[in-house]
Amino acid sequence: MRSSISSSPIPPLLRRSFFNPRYLCHQSAISDKPIISDSPISENPIAGPTTKSPNELTPPSSSAEKPAYELHLHQNPSSESTDLSHAHVINTLLSHRNDPFSALRYFNWAERRRGFVRSVDSFCVLLHILMGSVETRGQAQNLLCRSVFGDSGPSPIVFVDRLFDCGKRFDFELDSQVFNLLLNSYIRANRIRDAVHCFNKMVEIEILPWVPFMNILLTALIRRNMSGEARELHDKMVLRGVFGDRVTVHVLMRACLKEERGEEAEKYFREAKDRGVELDAAAYSILIQAFCKKPNSRVASELVKEMRDRGWVPSEGTFTSVVGACVKQGNMVEALKLKDDMVSCGKPLNAVVLTNLMKGYCVQGNTSSALDLFYKMDQYGVSPNKITYAVLIEWCSKSGEMEKAYELYNQMKHVGIQPNSYVMNSLLRGLLKFRTFEDASKLFNEAVECGVANIFMYNTILYSLCNVGKVNEACALWDSMIGKGAVPNVISYSSMILGHCRRGAMDMAHHLFTEMLERSVKPDVFTYSILMDGYFKKGDKERAFEIFNHMMAANIAPTDFTYNTVINGLCRVGRTSEARDMLMKYVEMGFVPVCLTYNSIINGLIKEGDMNSALAVYREMCEGGVSPNVVTYTSLIDGFFKSNNMTLALTMRNEMKNKGIELDITAYGALIDGFCKGLDMVTASELFSELLEVGLSPNTTIYTSMICGFLNLRNTEAALRLHGRMSDEGIPCDLITYTALIDGLLKDGKLVVASDFYLEMLSKGIVPDIVTYTTLINGLCNRGQLGNVRKVLEDMDGKNVAPNVLIYNTLIAGHFKEGNMQEAFRLHDEMLDRGLVPDDKTYDILLNGKLKGTSELPGA
Fold first, then answer.
1. How many angstroms separate the CA atoms of 787 and 781, rounded?
2. What pTM, to 2 d.p., does this model score?
3. pLDDT of residue 781
4. Which InterPro entries does its entry note (predicted)?
5. For residue 695, with 0-12 CB atoms within 10 Å meaning exposed, 13-18 middle and 19 or more buried, which class applies?
6. Which residue in 278, 497, 510, 838 has its CB near the most CB atoms, within 10 A?
């Protein structure tokens, strides 16, 4: 077929005809055979040779050169008797079927006559005549393009049907080319729906569209997100044995890639390969892209190797995609190999490849290699972009390399790249985790000033404040956030609810929850779980389950976190047996208990003193395939010590060692405290030394346990040495530590040293509680220091701490011992005035002047 589709201009009047859809109205009353009539053209044959070129088809200008049908009208302008019925026009066209130029001239002439009957059939006959000659196929193409230019006119189905019918009726050779040219015209006119109808009708009458035109139509459909229709058209061709060529494979694979249907893209590739289609590098590249999106870096890398074996050089984009897929799947060895292969193929490295490699290093925890690659970017002629900086800042912040993160942040600004909210939020999280809140606050204020701070940054600060109990500061930030137009989302509200729950302000937490609902901010499962946990911590089981039921009514499915919250909450309020029942119910609903679940139940049973049941649950978790962790063993060890079963406590400790579970500081603390309370300071000291050997640092609780243990054995020297070590290591003493030291020193008669510790405690801002005061008064009374006792009582009054029954019993016994009966009875009356009820020991002291069975005062 000639390629010069538009080689012949269409006469002006003919062109106007095809821009007006009226000229192609459908007429069906045509006889089955050529019509013979006395038309003007029969009497006056068209003058001139029939071999004129298309450029010579313009009507003659002189009357001598005009055809008879034109000359007749020129000489008799009032005559309109020329027969231009559709039958006559078709008959005249058919009489010139071997002279397509004459047929076209006649059709052009007839169109200008008022009596011309315009029909689809006459046009179809003309098209068949023009397609009969190689020289006039270009005119046919032009006529088709112009005929479908508008939106009106015959439908594609009618057009194809009449074209087919006319071809058969008038014995034209049914050349599929004219039908394909019609299909292509619809596509070129951007009438894609009509092109689809034309395509389907052609297939229906067994005139198959040419593969190139099919490919063009498929491409057009896919660009319009009509991939389903594209696959249907292709399937119809496949049913008739036409699969297409490699371009078809490209088109269909790209459609699959667009819809993320990688498996289907691979199917088209494999089927084409099995049929013997010579697939090119483009097909391989598309398939590689499909595997990169899965991602399946192994297969993608193998396809790159196959391309190289065939002598093809993958594109820069293909290398980039495969490197990214390898990094995503953690295959850094292959990613680096591809990077080297890319360079050896002469493909330039780009920022995407290098940034992906940096991220791969960072994910592996190798930020130093990522930074080395960053500093080599200049050597590759590549400049870091915003994503490059974002990746490095994020991972340096995650790993605690805040100096490097800040250096990159400042460098980013220096090269003119404005940090966005993602970068600043990454840096903010790192500062909150590894630096001070003041550093984080400074960065946050900078983000607010430059307009980068968004709701995510506000949420980061809000959560940080609420998580550490700084609710007042969080409330101030909340007000500022609202004032700047930031709209709180579910994370904002959940963070604030968490803060109020942490400090037990459940009314405020519930108020925020109600406000969320009123503002159409839908709580998520985390919000509900926080509220439930808050109510459980307050011992309000009923309200906790109200929240749970509200969540279920809102069609929010509980997560494992929710189930564990309920189970842990019930154990916390002393309803462990109920928690076990709930666990069985949740398991039936599909919940899979984990170590945390069992730990809650074991800890709850131990607090309730039911060690047998705790051991039963422990065996149950082991049999269920859930491995106990250090928390499990620590709870059991603590429980055995509390039930005075030191043998089983050591058994648990040995079992931990056999299973390779390392003791943490809490586990060591439980063991040391248990042996100290059992007065086995040899074992306690061995554990203390072991703790130091494994690289752990004793905390205040462990030092206090050791100090109390030695003091209980009246070994004040060892206790004081431990206190000195605490001070040297910068570990602060708390109220319990000071109370234990004061008690031991007073019992040992070291009043001055005890007094010094008491003053030291006060100087550090540690306020004595009733236990401390009871210890002081008891020790002073036992040493006959009633004068100093009076000062302690005055100090208690100044701090609004009222003496309890134990203190009054100690004071009464002390005055009886000194023979001051009047003061002893006065203290009894004072007890009554304060609303305290004397116990049996009080009356025993008053009656006998001493406590039965001991020569020491109460609390000694």
1. 9
2. 0.64
3. 80
4. PPR/CCM1_RNA-binding (IPR051222), PPR_rpt (IPR002885), TPR-like_helical_dom_sf (IPR011990)
5. exposed
6. 497
pLDDT in tens, 816-844: 777 777 777 887 887 787 777 777 777 77
Give the residue ranges of the chain where pLDDT is below 50: 1-66, 68-81, 850-860
State the Cα–Cα distance between residues 827 and 831, nearest whole angstrom.
6
As a 3-state breakdown, the chain gives helix, strand, coil percent values, each rounded to 5, of: 70, 0, 30
Question: Terminus-to-terminus CA distance in the chain, angstroms?
Answer: 117
Instruction: Give 306's DSSP letter.
Output: H
Structure tokens at 550: 């509200």
* Cβ neighbours of residue 63 closer than 8 Å, sequence gap 6 or more: 71, 74
Which of 384, 450, 446 has the alpha carbon at shortest distance from 415? 384
Residue 448: the pLDDT is: 92
Cα four-point dihedral sign 249, 250, 253, 259: negative
**Pick from 303, 332, 335: nearest CA to 320:** 335
Which pair of tokens denotes residue 676? Answer: 């100290």
Pick from 120, 41, 121: nearest CA to 82: 41
CA dist 809 and 792 (Å) reads 16
Which pLDDT score, from 0 to 100, does residue 708 have? 92
Interhelix angle 646-658/630-642, nearest 10 degrees: 170
Report residue 519: phi and psi, to 5°.
Answer: -95, 10
What token pair was written down for 664? 């943490």
